[in-house]
């Protein structure tokens, strides 16, 4: 009996070892090895383990480098208020003994779902106490405030304080809710492109170079649509997207074909939650993100929709109006999205479509979540939908303050119910950040 038990134990051990070894080395699905649910920011790539765990050898620097590989540029752009160099200063050595703020994983530990809060923070929400427990001595206005409110009351963000710096608060104090002069960036990149490329000839339907044998009745309709697009205006013919490197016709071009001409937009898209599964920083090939994979509420009929460039931009119509509103609303099914059509923002968008207000006056989903910006003399659209989404104060400078005062913007973004209603009404609370900053300058 004892011998039989040993045989059974040996067989089971070998079988289990073989299964785990095969799964670890060869199988695509490594779900068995996930030690805990990943955060909201990383669950899309939870099976691309080696994107973060780049080596089985080495210390904390392995994970630190993996974090910076994706987030370093973002932190630099945000003018990070707690950069690593702050904590390499010997004068802060005593603080590092309490909280090693040089390493991202000190505050952001993955696979710790039960203790993960907003922004993927896994420390108790009063973590500012460790370094700022004496803040009330220099700032009497902070007397009695709980440290758990530092980052939750629209006052401070650990990394990105661009809309909350004291000087910025004072500069924009005392302005009305609606600014008298609003910022309206309008794309006219086609005109500038044609001016820089005078040899480019606008194409018509008869110019379409789709191979004759590929033409179907449906293709004829698509060709007519294409002839009315910006692509045809700037001389981009069918084979520019449909032919591969061997000049062979592909009925379905590769997912990254748009990056041949729109590299910046593709890079931004693959940095977003929509496109991060297609990023070249992910160590394995993943399918495009679909709403069914997400943790947010979506319409049932959209669950299997691939989130690629063509998911929002039909390449044969390039309808940016659809991409700015309908593409979002056809998938997202949350209170904020569903209330958009009842909002003043949407009313302005409708008036713009009817020609009743100047171009750029309307406010769409893209206006706030994919704001326009100027670069190199051109107006561009941010294609990383998450660039200014969390924490939402990041949206103040790039979106809200194009029309609204800083004070109104801070109050509005701190009001969760107002956000859910898609800003129907006014903020129900007032954040005293500007008042406190102004008072301090008068002391």
Automatic annotation (TrEMBL):
<keyword id="KW-0249">Electron transport</keyword>
<keyword id="KW-0479">Metal-binding</keyword>
<dbReference type="GO" id="GO:0046872">
    <property type="term" value="F:metal ion binding"/>
</dbReference>
<feature type="domain" description="Tetrahaem cytochrome">
    <location>
        <begin position="42"/>
        <end position="133"/>
    </location>
</feature>
<keyword id="KW-0106">Calcium</keyword>
<keyword id="KW-0560">Oxidoreductase</keyword>
<keyword id="KW-0349">Heme</keyword>
<dbReference type="InterPro" id="IPR036280">
    <property type="entry name" value="Multihaem_cyt_sf"/>
</dbReference>
<comment type="similarity">
    <text>Belongs to the cytochrome c-552 family.</text>
</comment>
<dbReference type="Pfam" id="PF02335">
    <property type="entry name" value="Cytochrom_C552"/>
</dbReference>
<dbReference type="InterPro" id="IPR012286">
    <property type="entry name" value="Tetrahaem_cytochrome"/>
</dbReference>
<dbReference type="Pfam" id="PF14537">
    <property type="entry name" value="Cytochrom_c3_2"/>
</dbReference>
<protein>
    <recommendedName>
        <fullName>nitrite reductase (cytochrome; ammonia-forming)</fullName>
        <ecNumber>1.7.2.2</ecNumber>
    </recommendedName>
</protein>
<dbReference type="InterPro" id="IPR003321">
    <property type="entry name" value="Cyt_c552"/>
</dbReference>
<dbReference type="GO" id="GO:0042279">
    <property type="term" value="F:nitrite reductase (cytochrome, ammonia-forming) activity"/>
</dbReference>
<dbReference type="GO" id="GO:0030288">
    <property type="term" value="C:outer membrane-bounded periplasmic space"/>
</dbReference>
<dbReference type="GO" id="GO:0019645">
    <property type="term" value="P:anaerobic electron transport chain"/>
</dbReference>
<keyword id="KW-0813">Transport</keyword>
<dbReference type="GO" id="GO:0020037">
    <property type="term" value="F:heme binding"/>
</dbReference>
<keyword id="KW-0408">Iron</keyword>
<keyword id="KW-0732">Signal</keyword>
């Amino acid at each position: 009996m004892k011998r039989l038990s040993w045989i059974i134990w040996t067989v089971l051990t070998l079988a289990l070892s073989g299964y785990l070894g095969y799964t670890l080395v060869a199988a695509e699905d490594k779900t068995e090895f996930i030690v805990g649910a990943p955060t909201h920011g990383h669950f899309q790539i939870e099976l691309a383990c080696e994107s973060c765990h780049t080596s089985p050898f080495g210390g904390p620097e392995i994970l630190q480098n993996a974090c910076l590989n994706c987030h370093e540029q973002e932190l630099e752009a945000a003018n990070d208020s707690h950069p690593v160099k702050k904590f390499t200063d010997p004068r802060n050595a005593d603080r590092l003994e309490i909280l090693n703020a040089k390493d991202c994983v000190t505050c952001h530990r993955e696979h710790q779902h039960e203790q993960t809060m907003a922004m993927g923070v896994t420390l108790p929400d009063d973590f500012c106490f460790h370094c700022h427990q004496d803040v009330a001595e220099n700032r009497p206005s902070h007397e009695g405030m709980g440290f758990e409110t530092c980052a939750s009351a629209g006052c401070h963000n650990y990394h990105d304080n661009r809309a909350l710096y004291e000087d910025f608060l004072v500069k924009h104090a005392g302005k009305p809710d609606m600014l008298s002069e609003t910022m309206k960036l309008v794309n006219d990149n086609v005109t500038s492109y044609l001016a820089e490329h005078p040899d480019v000839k606008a194409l018509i339907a008869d110019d379409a170079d789709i191979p004759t044998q590929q033409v179907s009745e449906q293709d004829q309709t698509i060709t007519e649509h294409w002839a009315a697009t910006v692509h045809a205006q700037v001389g981009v013919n069918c084979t520019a997207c449909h032919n591969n490197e061997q000049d062979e016709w592909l009925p379905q071009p590769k997912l990254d074909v748009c990056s041949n001409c729109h590299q910046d937009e593709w890079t931004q898209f693959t940095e977003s939650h929509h496109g991060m599964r297609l990023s070249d920083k992910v160590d394995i090939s993943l399918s495009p993100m679909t709403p069914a994979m997400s943790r947010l509420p979506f319409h049932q009929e959209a669950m299997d929709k691939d989130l690629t460039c063509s998911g929002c931009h039909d390449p044969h119509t390039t309808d940016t109006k659809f991409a700015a509103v309908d593409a979002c609303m056809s998938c997202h099914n949350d209170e904020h999205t569903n209330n958009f059509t009842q909002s003043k923002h949407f009313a302005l968008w409708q008036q713009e479509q009817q020609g009743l207000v100047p171009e750029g006056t309307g406010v769409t989903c893209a206006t706030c979540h994919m704001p326009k910006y100027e670069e190199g003399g051109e107006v561009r659209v941010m294609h990383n939908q998450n660039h200014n989404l969390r924490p939402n104060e990041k949206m103040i400078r790039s979106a809200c303050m194009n029309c609204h005062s800083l004070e109104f913007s801070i109050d509005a973004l701190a009001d969760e119910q107002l956000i859910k209603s898609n800003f129907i009404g006014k903020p129900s609370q007032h954040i005293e950040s500007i008042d406190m900053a102004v008072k301090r300058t008068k002391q």
